[in-house]
């Protein structure tokens, strides 16, 4: 009977369990998580702040899932991998593995701001504990400063609206969601946040903190009671890097999710794998990829044969009822529709759809995603139809038959 060890408590770890069990029903699985709790949906912590959900509902799998899959839960931080003896050190325990998956995720990146140590009430916004800290330290009179206008910072802002006196979001970038949206689309998303009371200081950076005051490079200043640091994240690669595994921005993996080390795999936000939209490797720190990578790793750890070579960026974003979906690459020929109700941008390489941005009306996203994933070559007529009215009619009859279960 094989011993499987999974390090990390995120979505990729649960997927790895399910991948293993799709092949091996009896091997022992050790689930090691330094967060000291079973897996939950981290993106939902902003909805907890809003009062829309609770921690019980945020659990990714029921409590009995782990026992049913013969998992031993160890809520301590993994300290070291020993590749020669094939063990993992966790506190005073040494756990033997036949196959190991490192799914350690990422950690907040905190720039060396001058005076940051003088700020007493400060936190990141990535975990349940962060959400609880914020909840404990806010009141209707609290002024909040959020550093970072990416998805994490903006979801935190949304979660705080109506619960605090003021919310200011700052970023060195000149637009919100700078890694996901271009200028026009970012302005569209920013406006709905502003309409709900969120203020922005973009294209500026904090020069120095002094307790409850931030002075910016521009000379402007903001008084605050709570500081939320959402500048960015870095992949947790040290466990693999420290034993000679290949790393870059993430842990380097092949299409089997195997690292450069024998019998060691990696998945999720810590892994750097193939992105089919740019034909190169990079970290794809999004939930669907975390699941797909974890499941693939699990299958191969258990002796199966599964490859993952069709992943690409796919983001679902929403603020105050305005939804946006983005995918793929934003290069090549662009088709655009822009109204007061939303924006649609489709990006083509010849007759292949390679990316899209949908804001407001997200109709057709499933069809667009399928075309990108399968690198479908469209006929000119189908391309025009796709631009105006996406439907299964754009596919050839045999493909329509497959998608409709044999009904054309």
End-to-end span in angstroms? Answer: 48 Å
The percentage helix is 10-25%
Order of neighbouring strands in the sheet with most strands? 3-2-1-7-19
Number-wise, the strands total 26
Coarse morphology: globular
- As residue ranges, the low-confidence spans are 402-408
Q: Determine the structural class based on helices, strands and strand pairing.
A: alpha/beta
- The chain-level mean pLDDT equals 92
Largest beta-sheet characterization: 5 strands, parallel
Strand content: 25-35%
Number of helices: 11
Q: Which radius of gyration do the C-alpha atoms yield?
A: 23 Å
Structure description:
The chain has a five-stranded parallel β-sheet with strand order 3-2-1-7-19. Helix 1 runs parallel beside helix 8. The radius of gyration is 23 Å and the shape is globular. The chain starts with a strand and ends in a 5-residue tail after the last helix. The protein has 408 residues and is α/β, with parallel strands linked by helices. The chain has helices at residues 11-21, 45-50, 64-68, 128-137, 151-160, 183-195, 238-241, 287-301, 365-374, 380-388, 397-403; strands at 3-7, 28-32, 71-74, 78-82, 87-90, 93-96, 99-102, 106-108, 122-123, 143-147, 166-171, 198-202, 206-210, 213-216, 221-223, 226-229, 233-235, 251-252, 264-266, 271-275, 280-282, 314-319, 322-328, 333-339, 342-349, 352-359. Strand 25 and strand 26 form a beta hairpin.
């Amino acid at each position: 009977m094989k011993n499987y060890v999974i390090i990390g408590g995120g979505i990729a770890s649960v997927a790895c369990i399910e991948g293993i069990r799709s092949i091996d029903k009896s091997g022992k699985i050790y689930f090691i998580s330094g967060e000291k709790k079973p897996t939950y949906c981290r993106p939902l912590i902003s909805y907890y702040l809003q009062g829309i959900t609770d921690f019980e509902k945020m659990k990714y799998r029921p409590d009995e899932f782990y026992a049913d899959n013969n998992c031993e839960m160890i809520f301590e931080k993994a300290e070291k991998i020993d590749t020669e003896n094939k063990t993992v050190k966790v506190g005073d325990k040494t756990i033997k593995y036949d196959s190991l998956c490192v799914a350690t995720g990422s950690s907040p990146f905190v720039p060396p701001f001058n005076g940051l140590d003088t700020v007493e009430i400060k936190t990141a916004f990535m975990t349940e504990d962060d959400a609880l800290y914020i909840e404990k330290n806010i009141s209707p009179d609290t002024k909040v400063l959020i550093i970072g206008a990416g998805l994490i910072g903006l979801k935190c802002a949304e979660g705080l609206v109506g619960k605090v006196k003021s919310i200011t979001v700052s970023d060195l970038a000149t637009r919100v969601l700078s890694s996901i949206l271009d200028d026009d689309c970012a302005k569209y998303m920013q406006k709905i946040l502003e309409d709900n009371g969120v203020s922005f200081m973009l294209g500026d950076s904090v020069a120095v903190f002094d307790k409850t005051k931030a002075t910016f490079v521009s000379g402007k200043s903001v008084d605050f009671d709570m500081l939320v640091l959402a500048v960015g994240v870095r992949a947790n690669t040290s466990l693999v890097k420290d034993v000679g595994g290949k790393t870059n921005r993430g842990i380097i993996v092949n299409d089997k999710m195997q690292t450069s080390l024998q019998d060691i795999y990696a998945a999720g936000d810590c892994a750097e794998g193939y992105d089919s939209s740019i034909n190169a490797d990079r970290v794809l720190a999004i939930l669907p990829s975390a699941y797909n990578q974890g499941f693939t790793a699990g299958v191969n750890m258990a002796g199966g044969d599964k490859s993952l070579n069709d992943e690409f960026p796919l983001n679902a974003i929403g603020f105050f009822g305005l939804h946006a979906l983005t995918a793929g690459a934003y290069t090549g020929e662009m088709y655009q529709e822009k109204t007061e109700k939303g924006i649609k941008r489709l990006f083509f390489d010849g007759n292949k759809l390679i990316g899209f941005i949908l804001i407001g009306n997200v109709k057709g996203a499933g069809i667009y995603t399928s075309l990108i994933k399968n690198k479908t070559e469209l006929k000119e007529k189908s391309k025009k139809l796709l631009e105006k009215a996406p439907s299964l009619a754009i596919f050839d009859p045999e493909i329509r038959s497959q998608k409709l279960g044999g009904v054309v």
